[in-house]
Design brief:
The protein has about 210 residues and is α+β, with helices and mostly antiparallel strands. The chain has four helices and seven strands. The longest helix is centred in the middle third of the chain and has 12 residues, at about 70-80. It is globular, with a radius of gyration of 18 Å.
Length: about 210
């Protein structure tokens, strides 16, 4: 005999709706929260939705001393692909999973509304990471590339005023699963890992074409 457990029933929906496969996705950010890690590293917590599935992602952008890190380049690429010259945090509402309540709860936070609701293309890779409770490794999604949703141009191609995408296919071909490694700056799941200078994350030209 089984008695209905509504909490477990809800979990089934959440699992099936999660992005778990590496690949090329076009969707929107539905949440962009201004976050600060315990180390003082600043970043943005993102919720990405594509084709009815979602993934929680983090971009850590600056250390406590103001030094920029890899996630800053990714954020600049996202802004370029969305044609945003600047973004400013505002008071808003975000949703987070609460282990005690076993449900998503709303809370007040500083958010970046300009990043939400606009089409964006992401290359998402899978990455193993050691769980905080010491129970082994988990797997999370990390951003491996960014492109303009309608044109498939990368940020550097947009800044170079190119009209035909050339880099994206090469970036897709290099996608892979990342095994567990040492803890990354910021210490939060989904943080973009440092990698060689990937196409689309190059230094930005001051001559912005938008």
């Amino acid at each position: 005999m089984y008695a209905l457990d509504t909490t477990e029933a809800r979990k089934a929906d959440q699992t099936s709706n999660r992005i778990t496969e590496l690949g090329k996705y076009v969707g929107t950010f539905t949440q962009a929260e201004d976050v600060t890690a315990s180390t003082g590293t600043k970043g943005i917590g993102l919720r990405f939705e594509a084709n009815g599935q979602n993934a929680n992602l983090s971009l850590y952008t600056k250390k406590s001393d103001g030094t920029t890190i890899m996630g800053f380049q990714a954020l600049m690429a996202i802004m370029t692909c969305m044609k945003l010259r600047d973004i400013k945090p505002k008071a808003g509402i975000v949703k987070h999973w609460d282990n005690d309540a076993r449900a998503e709860v709303e809370k007040q936070a500083q958010v970046f509304p300009d990043l939400c609701g606009k089409p964006i293309g992401l290359l998402l890779e899978t990455e193993d990471y050691p769980k905080n409770d010491g129970s082994g490794n988990g797997t999370r999604m990390v951003i491996a590339g960014i492109f303009q949703a309608d044109t498939e141009l990368t940020a550097s191609e947009i800044l170079d005023r190119k009209t035909a995408p050339e880099q994206l296919a090469k970036m897709v071909a290099r996608m892979h699963h990342r095994p567990a490694k040492a803890a990354k700056q910021g210490g939060s799941s989904g943080a973009m890992a440092p990698s060689p200078r990937a196409p689309g994350f190059d230094d930005f030209d001051s001559d912005i074409p938008f």
